[in-house]
Amino acid sequence: MLHWLIVVHGLAVMAIFLSPLALIFQLIFSLLMAVSLFFYLQFSPGAYTIRYSSFKGWEWRDLACEFSLLEVLSTTVMSPYFIVLQVQTDKRQNRTLLICKDAMLE
What we know:
By secondary structure, the chain is α+β, with helices and mostly antiparallel strands. 36% of the residues lie in helices and 31% in strands. The protein is built from two helices and six strands. It has helices at residues 2-18, 23-43, and strands at residues 49-53, 57-61, 67-72, 77-78, 82-89, 94-100. Strands 1, 2, 3, 4, 5 and 6 form a six-stranded antiparallel beta sheet that branches. It is elongated. The protein starts with a helix and ends in a 6-residue tail after the last strand. The model has no long low-confidence stretch (mean pLDDT 85).
């Protein structure tokens, strides 16, 4: 997925430089493409997997495909339509995950 994202942004930059725009506008739009790629890589939500086992308790698989232990915090909010899951990982990072009703198993 990451390679395709870089390829698409690279193709966009090539298209910008092949366009008949003035050089200053080509540089501005190319800079915007670089900023777009940077922000997408830094803040892309991605997909996470949460599971429970009787031996280890709650675990989640992050974007690196590694399972980490979770501690569910008391500030977690549950409603019939969504869950705002506030957890602390085994690396002592606090995370907030929004789980909508359509993502939950019945």
